[in-house]
Amino acid sequence: MCGIIGYIGNNDAKAFLLDGLEKMEYRGYDSSGISVMSGNKIHTFKKRGRLQILRESLKNQQDVSGFVGIGHTRWATHGGASDINAHPQNSQSGRISVVHNGIIENYISLKNFLLEKGFKFISDTDTEVVAQLIDFYYKDNFFEAVKTAVSKLEGSYALGILCSNEPDKIIAAKKDSPLIVGIGEDENYIASDVTALISKTRKIYRLEENDIAVVKKDKVTIYSNAGKKVLDRDKDCTTIDWDIESVGKGNYDHFMMKEIMQQPKVLKKTIDSLIKNGKIDFLDVGLTDEYLKSLSKIFIVACGSAYHVGVVGRYVVEKLAKISVEVELASEFRYKEPLVDESSLVIVISQSGETADSLAALREAKKLGAKVLSIVNVVGSSIANESDYVIYTLAGQEIAVATTKAYSCQLSVVYILALYFAERFKSISDDDLSKYIAELISLPDKLELILQQKDELLEIAQKYKDISCAFFIGRTLDYAVCMEGSLKLKEVSYVHCEAYAAGELKHGTISLIEKGTLVIALLTQDELFDKTVSNLREVKARGARIFAITTANHRSKINEVADDVYFIPECLNLMSPVLSVIPLQLLSYYSAFLRGCDIDKPRNLAKSVTVE
Ligand code: F6R
Predict the structure, then answer these.
(1) Atom of ligand 1 nearest to the CA of 383
(2) What is the C-alpha end-to-end distance of the chain, expressed in Å?
(3) Residue 213 placed within a domain
(4) Are residues 282 and 374 in the same domain?
(5) In angstroms, rounded to a whole number, what is the distance separating the alpha carbons of residues 261 and 335?
(6) What are phi and psi of 500, to 5 degrees?
(7) Residue 602 within any structural domain of the chain
């Protein structure tokens, strides 16, 4: 959700800023801009639309050279996507330039305050208020002005700030939105995300809540609640060991396909990190038997696809560990006065580790006395930092806005966690435990088999590429996967989709089924197969076309009712979500491709939703 970048050093700031923004464009892509310091003057260039438009517009600009600059790629919150509302936002004197990720909740009262002081505004953004406020407090010390201004802000912010009177520094400030400082050789950087810096440095420092960083080319000073410290490259910084290849598309046309195809590898890596020699190894997680015994309830809290993992998690944990589980959308949980106390474990699932609602839900849970275990993909992210226990998914950097590989890795962790609880609560026999663990370990190979047959999904997508709506139906675990399949198809191909529990359709929604409506059905739970087939007959009788996903043991029965069928490899019913979601991911990808959609950057979306 908005990408921030900053550079200070001896090289051309513009080139670095534009390259960094390109790497972070997935965070927001409705407009972009840069401010570059030339001598004691700030030059700002910004454009509505994709970064390429900004790049083109900068080609013939003379005054974009300088060694200090900030940049931004935007996902609009306050004010539509326009040149004026794009960041950087400058104060009217031109002295202060700001890029911002987050939302300033009290910007109206601050704006009124500044209007009374004679300030004039030209944009609809909350960020312009920040720039003017810093300018208002500026006497002769940039740092003091920023410090005073941010103390007046309510809401969330990651800020990169330039001041023309002090061109030897960038100031960065953070609250509830991610921001990192990168340490280079005679140059330093700020960014929302490691991706933007990885080609320049592996040494990064994640700003903590309420930190203000003064970034000069040869020195970074952090002012925090704990006092002032000059960053030591070796002592204070994390070394990022990512493969540089991970930030490119490789041989694929889109990150989404690259990430779908990476799934066997990253799933195996994640499973191997938690299962050693056929046994679950949670030593590093730190849960104790005494603590587990004190639990009466588990909550799983997340947003979007991560929430869908939670829906699978509820079925699986309840079935295996026999403990009551509630799964909640983080945006609801945080405001509903949840019945959480010391005897509750709250599991927060998040790829980015920065989702604003999930972070707020985590804080609410802790306030109510619960401990929080998070399942997170980004090491050192806010959710990971603030949790009592953390399990990392090892999906690697996920760049396509629509999640695929992170979802699969989260699923695998949820299974392992359920088995771990079952083992500790003694609700599973040794034989069953071994059987499930063996199945889990075999899943990456089975997933590979599906990917080898991916052209079958292209054919299905071709057949249904002109649909305007689709229904996904299934029961229990299949219903949970339907939710994810439906979200995937709608977000990348803009087909209106709904996921329904198969038995629920006839309680109203079946009125929408007419001749030609596509119904995508999941039937991977043997004992529920006949029940869902009955629901399929109901929609078929009303003219629906049916695409079914099941296993080969149901071949003859399913062929009688479905127009198209995809068979996933046989696996234990309980673990089928890990496999059945893959054809749905591929179908979504191919549908989006055939419909000419912008697969990696679907309209209106952004990766990492750091506003509520
Ligand atoms: C959908 C998707 C989103 C995320 C959601 C939570 O493809 O990616 O629904 O799952 O925004 O994000 P994280 O997992 O980063 O908390």
Answers:
(1) 16
(2) 11
(3) yes
(4) yes
(5) 38
(6) -130, 145
(7) no
**Residues with catalytic function:** 2, 607
Beta strands in 58-141 (DSSP E): 68-74, 89-90, 96-101
Residue 72 and residue 33 in contact, taking contact as beta carbons nearer than 8 Å: yes
386, 609, 610: residue to mutate for ligand 1 pocket, most atoms within 8 A of CB: 609
Domain ranges, residue 98: 3-246
* CATH number reported for the structural domain that contains residue 522 in this entry: 3.40.50.10490
Q: Is residue 608 part of a domain?
A: no
Ligand 1, atom nearest to 355 Cα? 16
- The confidence score (pLDDT) of residue 64 equals 82
- Given 246, 263, 284, the domain boundary residue is 246
Residue positions counted in the chain: 612
The answer on 414 and 518 residing in a single domain is no
| Mutation to probe ligand 1, out of 254, 303, 391, 492 (largest number of atoms < 8 A from CB) | 303
Q: Total structural domains in the chain? A: 3
Beta-carbon count within 10 A of 509 CB: 13
Ligand 1 pocket member 384 (CB < 6 A): no
State whether 85 and 183 are in the same domain. Answer: yes
**Distance from the CA of 34 to the center of ligand 1, in angstroms?**
28
**313 and 362 part of one domain:** yes
Mean pLDDT for the stretch of residues 491-499: 97
Same domain, 254 and 242: no
Q: Calculate the average pLDDT of the chain.
A: 95
Task: Assess if residue 63 is contained within a domain.
Answer: yes
Compute, in angstroms, the gap from residue 12 CA to the centroid of ligand 1.
35
Cα separation values, 604 from 30, 104, 491, 601, Å: 8, 21, 9, 9
Residues 213 and 277 in one domain: no
Same domain, yes or no: 300 and 199: no
Same domain, 230 and 297: no
| Cα–Cα distance, 253 to 245 (Å, whole number) | 15
Statement: residue 88 has pLDDT above 90 = yes
Among 75, 300, 305, name the best residue to mutate to test ligand 1's pocket (greatest count of ligand atoms within 8 A of Cβ). Answer: 305
pLDDT at 222 over 90: yes
Say if residue 242's pLDDT is above 90: no
| pLDDT the model gives residue 78 | 83
Ligand 1 atom closest to Cα of 410? 14
0.85 exceeded by the pTM?
A: yes
Instruction: Kindly report the protein residue whose alpha carbon is nearest to atom 7 of ligand 1.
Output: 402
Atom of ligand 1 nearest to the CA of 305: 10
Query: From ligand 1's centre to the CA of 10, what distance in Å?
Result: 38
